[in-house]
Amino acid sequence: MIDISNVSKRFQHSNAVDGLSLQITAGELTVLIGTSGSGKSTTLKMINRLIEPDSGSIRLAGEDIRQQTPEVLRRRIGYAIQSVGLFPHWTVEQNIAAVPTLLKWPAARIRNRVTELLELLHLPAETFRQRYPHQLSGGQQQRVGVARALAADPEVLLMDEPFGALDPVTRGSLQQELARIQKLSGKTIVLVTHDIDEALQLGQHIVLMDKGRIVQQGKPESFLLQPANDFVRDFVGQSDAGVRLLGLTTVASRVQPTARAEGEPIRSDCTLREALSQFVSRQVDRLPVVNEQGQHAGALLFCDLLGGKAS
Amino acid sequence: MRPLRALLARRALLLASGLLLAALLLLPHATPLFAWLFPELDRPLYVQESFGTLVLAHLGIVLASSSIAVLLGAGAGLLVSRTAWRDLRPLFETVIAISQSLPPVAVLAVAAPLIGFGEWPALIALVLYGLLPVAHGTLSGLDAIPAHLREVALGMGMTPAQTLRQVELPLAAPVILAGIRTSVVINIGTAAIASTVGAKTLGLPIIVGLSGFNTAYVIQGALLVALLAVVADQLFEWLATWLAPHTAVE
């Protein structure tokens, strides 16, 4: 979908991005992760030409992005940033309608699209449509920010630390929301973050960058199981690597359907990391499991946390 | 918050306009009052021109000079806030500051021999004097817009012109308006001085009064200038309540 080939960008004294090549697959959520100054944000902004590379080329859907004017290109690409960037003098509706208005959609179509998006993000349309950004909580603002980025049904969604400024609870629920929307719409999403847990939870493909180069890329598990070098090991957090690995697998894949256990059941869509926490805090070695409809689905055995019985 | 502010602004504007109107209607009949206040004066009421004519002439010269000052000040402020012209900004700010530091009387004294007496030297002095608050308001209004909003506007595909028109100017508008407000209110006061070079304004009774030791004339002129300034100020307060719905607090 996006083909970045041998791209470099130099700011005053340093190489922000240094001969970077990267393929971003259509329909996947790709996470660019790294410390500040690793070049991840610069890479993202080169995709919508907010920053022009010094050398190299970027192709979107097979076409060099320099073939179009920046404005036409950017209207095809959704863009959401950390500080949300809702226009404070516009209502929620006007904010979400920004790109469709630029694309001169008819008024009725814009109105329907706004309703649809507000509902998708669990914001009752009639309550929120006419509000101004300052009347919303941080989490609601970020939802509107995501809705605005999705408004014109863009081919690609670029997100620059979209949840960075939120409290952990709100961040968690918005991350789940994004994963749901991504699954639902099959959008190609490129997300920049410095939070390894966010990357592991959301990323289908993770690209770890340092000093403008790619250190390692691949599926989330590969970072935990086969870190390329000490930098990756440190970044992923050696001491927590095992627990994080459990966070990538759901209870459903390890549950014993015929087993039984006593106590408060856990849901089968929880991660094994949450299950581990339950084992330890309850001081038990087996937990009853219910499926997403709340029906009994067997039990999870402590010893199965290790074995890849079904995975 | 906003309805209350708008309501107060509307009332204050009506009150100020009412006072000005009352002063205009009552002054021609106030000879007994001023005769009683200043028994030593032969002619205690300024009658050479009607006060209505003077107010209109005063407003005319203020309107003309303020319009030019707003166009020049806001235009130049806008220009030097753009990337291509940013290098000129320090120079621009210096020039504006110098023009402000010249006393208006001095500008008039220099301008009158060069371009003659009447409205023209007055206009030039008032324009120079009105530039600074407008230019300052424009620059600080645009400066106060968070950089990420500009980035988002461009990032979603607005052209630079659309970004300016739809995002930057509306957000800077309250601060720009505050600059224009200061400029216009100062201008109303300063315009009175323009009568020293023969422009017809409310300064006429003041200057005639000062040179002829007629305090009653000075009071009559000053009262109307002050009321005019208050009306203008309240007009801007009322305008400001319409500009910033997003700053309202529930």
Automatic annotation (TrEMBL), chain A:
UniProtKB keywords: ATP-binding, Cell membrane, Membrane, Nucleotide-binding, Transport
Homology family: Belongs to the ABC transporter superfamily.
Tagged with keyword Hydrolase: no
TM region positions: none
Domain ABC transporter, first and last residues per copy: 2-236
Name the UniProt record assigns to this protein: ABC transporter ATP-binding protein
Entry superkingdom: Bacteria
PANTHER family: GLYCINE BETAINE UPTAKE SYSTEM ATP-BINDING PROTEIN YEHX, OSMOPROTECTANT IMPORT ATP-BINDING PROTEIN OSMV
One Gene Ontology molecular-function label: ATP binding
InterPro entries: AAA+_ATPase (IPR003593), ABC_transporter-like_ATP-bd (IPR003439), ABC_transporter-like_CS (IPR017871), CBS_dom_sf (IPR046342), P-loop_NTPase (IPR027417)
Gene source species: Vogesella oryzagri
